[in-house]
Amino acid sequence: MGGGGSALRVCADHRGGINWLSLSPDGQRLLTGSEDGTARLWSTADGTCCALLQGHESYVTFCQLEDEAAFTCSADCTIRKWDVLTGQCLQVFRGHTSIVNRILVADNQLFSSSYDRTARAWSMDRGQVAREFRGHRNCVLTLAYTGAPWVEEATAGGLLVTGSTDGTAKVWQVASGCCHQTLRGHTGAVLCLVLDAPGRTAFTGSTDATVRAWDILSGQQLRVFREHQGSVICLELVNRHVYSGSADRTVKCWLADTGERVRTFTAHRHSVSALKYHAGTLFTGSGDARARAFDAQSGALRRVFRGHAFVINCIQDSPCDFMNAALSLFHPYWNLIVPHPQCPFPLTLQGEPSPKAYLLCDFRLSTLPPV
User: What are the alphabetically sorted keywords of the record (predicted)?
Assistant: First the structure.
């Protein structure tokens, strides 16, 4: 079993739990969204806070950082766009009538999902709703987008995929707002979804303890991945392998094309709430307040990272220059955040999370022993 890893830095300026983080495409800046109703921009080089983004009237649920703008969404039913240099709010997007829990910037478009049972596409310039995707019978929790060339040919525009607590996922034509397919088969809430690289297959995880693969064009269910004994909370798709993190305290690795389970990662003492794959290492975050690094090929535990007090909800990597023997290398840091003492997607999906943790920690990948 691997030894422990210690935090390089702790960023503790937020006055409430950190719900999400996002890295800029160049890896130079980090954006965090908090229970205290603010977002903060940080330098990944030294961990200093570069800007405080204030304006939301309730907690920030999610955030995404682009090259020149930051986007946040909140329980105040709004989305905000911010200037990353000045911290000034550039645009407020209003229209949702309940908590906005996810946003996605893709192909110069802004998408959002909400507890008001809708997903929406927004005009980036005017801040107005460009398209409303209505049809789910309960909260819309997660979303993904594909604008692959085959999609353009088949549907005359991109496709948005949404997952809901009504037990379905839906595929929407972005250009028209029409529902292209409804993916039925789960018997519980859809908590997470990912698309494969071609954008043709969607993988969904649910409180029914299964992962399912779907053809998003035809709506056909391709495969069911069974073996988990608890809700599937998070998914990661890498090199035709699907990694699923579950409330049963395990991660399972499946062959995406056949549904065969090839590996199980154990050692967690609580639900697995976050996954990140990097260069042969699978990183996990858990409700036991630990992050772990596993050898993705063997399943062996390589390192346990300690320092948090509550569940780890998000893992991201940030490159920084590292010089060794006159060779320029990129050296990843793993940034781990803690929002709540519960699973990040409460199975009842009722009530609001309470602030518990305030810390963002960085762990250096070089603390891992060689494989």
Answer: Repeat, WD repeat
**At which residue do the structure tokens 């105040």 appear?**
76
CB-CB contact of 217 with 181 (8 Å): yes
Give phi and psi for 73, each to the nearest 5: -130, 160
Q: Which residue has the tokens 């299964």?
A: 210
- Tell me the per-residue pLDDT of 223-277, one tens digit each, with 9 for 90 and over: 999 999 999 999 999 999 999 999 999 999 999 999 999 999 998 989 999 999 9
Total of domains in the chain:
1
Per residue in 50-98, pLDDT (tens digit) is: 999 999 999 999 999 998 899 999 999 999 999 999 999 999 999 999 9
Q: What is the dihedral of CA 189, 350, 139, 96, to 10 degrees?
A: -160
Contacts of 125 (CB under 8 A, 6+ apart): none
CA 78/CA 240 separation, integer angstroms: 36
**Nearest by Cα to 270 from 259, 285, 260:** 285
Of the chain, the end-to-end C-alpha distance in Å amounts to 12
CB atoms within 10 A of CB 8: 15
| 248 Ramachandran zone, left/alpha/beta (phi>0; psi -120 to 50) | alpha
What is the Cα–Cα distance from 347 to 47, expressed in whole angstroms?
34
SS3 317: strand
| Average pLDDT score over residue span 195-224 | 96
Type of residue found at 130: A
CATH number for the domain harbouring residue 147 = 2.130.10.10
Collect contacts of 37-44 with beta carbons under 8 A, ≥24 apart.
37/74, 38/14, 39/63, 39/70, 39/72, 39/82, 40/13, 40/14, 41/65, 41/70, 41/84, 41/87, 42/11, 42/360, 44/318, 44/320, 44/333, 44/335
Q: Give the position of tokens 């529902």.
A: 179
Instruction: Quickly count: other Cβ atoms within 10 Å of residue 352's Cβ.
Output: 11
Count of Cβ atoms closer than 10 Å to residue 78 Cβ: 20
| Residue 170 domain boundaries | 3-367
